[in-house]
Amino acid sequence: MKRLNFILPTLEDKKKLMDYKREFIENNDSMDGTAGLGSAETFEEWYSAFCDNSKEETVRDSLVPATTYMAVSVSDGHLIGMIDIRHRLNDYLLNFGGHIGYSVRKSERRQGYATEMLGLALKECVKLGIKKVLITCNKNNIGSAKTIVNNNGILENEVDEGNRITQRYWVYL
């Protein structure tokens, strides 16, 4: 049973997104897959960058075009998580970041949402023509590793980033 829908953020989603950001800040969590929401000074600044980075013609320097979705509950529209699908890889993403980044708010974790989100994102990758998808996670993030493996991820290797070990998984579509 499908529990989540992917929705592109709009200006009307400001309250939902800022509440999402607040929960991550309160829990001192990493906001992966949010197109930089965690570091944006204002929602408007974030939304402008989100729009720019969605297209090859306007993507900002050193970044790649990406589609960032809100994963919302089918039943009530509650924002469960966010996921970022990068349309191509640069050197950094090839080594450490991958095609997909995602996060689930702490209050909604351990319910299978990340696995469902990643499965939906892989379907979007097919639409984008991405047949070999790289997904990475911190070696200490066992939940994320399980999410990737549950979506047919195959561990290629581990890369030492100095302060952490990044695991690199491939999913063949």
Low-pLDDT ranges: none
Any idea of the CATH class? Alpha Beta
Q: Strand tally, please?
A: 7
State the helicity in percent bands.
25-40%
Mean pLDDT: 96
Strands of the largest sheet, in order across it? Answer: 1-2-3-4
Q: What is the CATH topology?
A: Aminopeptidase
Class from secondary-structure proportions? alpha+beta
- CATH structural architecture: 3-Layer(aba) Sandwich
Instruction: Please name the fourth-level CATH homologous superfamily.
Output: Gcn5-related N-acetyltransferase (GNAT)
Q: Report how far apart the termini are.
A: 22 Å
InterPro entries: Acyl_CoA_acyltransferase, GNAT_dom
Organism: Clostridium beijerinckii (Clostridium MP)
Protein name: GNAT family N-acetyltransferase
Domain N-acetyltransferase: 4-173
Structure at a glance:
The protein is of the alpha+beta class. Helix content is 32%, strand content 27%.
Description:
The protein has 173 residues and is an alpha+beta fold. The chain has a single domain, classed as Aminopeptidase. Helices cover 32% and strands 27% of the residues. The chain has a four-stranded antiparallel sheet, sandwiched between helices. Strands 5-7-6 form a three-stranded antiparallel sheet, sandwiched between helices.
SSE blueprint and pairings:
Elements: E1 4-7, H1 14-26, H2 43-52, E2 66-73, E3 79-86, H3 91-97, E4 100-104, H4 113-128, E5 132-138, H5 142-150, E6 154-160, E7 165-172
Antiparallel strand pairs: 1-2, 2-3, 3-4, 5-7, 6-7
